[in-house]
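Intended use. Records like the one below are meant for learning the mapping from a protein sequence to its folded structure. Do not use them to infer anything beyond what is encoded.
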Amino acid sequence: MNDLCTDIGYKSINHYGEQLCGDHVDIVERGENSTVIVLADGLGSGVKASILSTLTSKIISTMMAEGLPLEECVSTIAATLPVCSSRGVAYSTFTIVHVINNESAELIQYDNPHVILIRDEEYYDYPKTEMNIDGKKIYKSVLKLRENDIFIAMSDGCPHAGIGTAYNFGWKRDDIAAFMQSLAPAGYTAKTLSTILVDECNKLYGNRPGDDTTACVVRVRKREPMNILFGPPSNRDDGERMMSLFFSKEGKHIICGGTTSSIAAKYLGKPLRATLNFERSDVPPIATIEGVDLVTEGVITVNKVLEYAKDHLGENVNYEHWSVKHDGASLISRLLFEEATDINFYVGRAINPAHQNPDLPINFNIKMNLVEELSKCLRQMGKRIKVSYF
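Structure written out for the chain above:
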């Protein structure tokens, strides 16, 4: 096994005036060795298109994750999709990116714009093999993965952006490739890259998209461990063991909570220095301990991180705040969402007497729920999570 992993992110916008998106992305992991990503685009827009694309992506991702041959997947779709009464066809295009052992990628493409690959910060024209399955022309490619490879899959809403307004014939694939190539050196996450691309398409549509528009980005990167300590242990005698385990782990170290940071400072024999720089009125200021990458307040800060995590998985509107600010929640968000791939939580079960005031909206259960919810969000971002309680 190598030390590479894949960062996957996608964003969709609906056809103007439609409640549902006719594109659908499905990601299925089978153990740590196989990830199947499917982007499907149903015929037309609205409810019918949404049903067609959802069925297509679910069927293909599930069958391929179980190791069934592509021919069987395609014939199953043809037999399963409901026929459109007005057009008389059952039709959904699809793009499949099958990552195997984080070493190779299998691309299978049917009628969607071809996947763009940025390799070594340059557009890379990869070989394709044409296949015919049940009368459908399907292109297949098998590629060895390299660090910093960026795969961009998209529905036809991307190249159709700007037709008749900014461009006569839409935003050509080569121009989209050049646009994404210019972003490659910045090191953005897959989610950020897909958001930038779809937002640009939306601008070209004049904020009234003429088609459902989806971009799904797969970025190959090295694993980056991260450790976060949150709360003191329920048994004081466990403090030494908790600190020893936390600081022995490779990667960056984040400490959340006043009491917790005092215990860590004592363990390291270094002073705990508070800063009084209030970047935001709703997030307490950070502190510093020599040898620790980030020291913040506990529950209020982590609650803000959770808020950012939920938004990051959805509309990603808060990105412009946490991506540049220097408050504790923004700094943690950048480390966890953008840098980390493997996150170890060390959570103390001690009850903070300050949180037992019935007038405060904070109690012991809320702290545990924060960790559970944040872990769930980070897993959805594709992170490996391990939680240890003390």
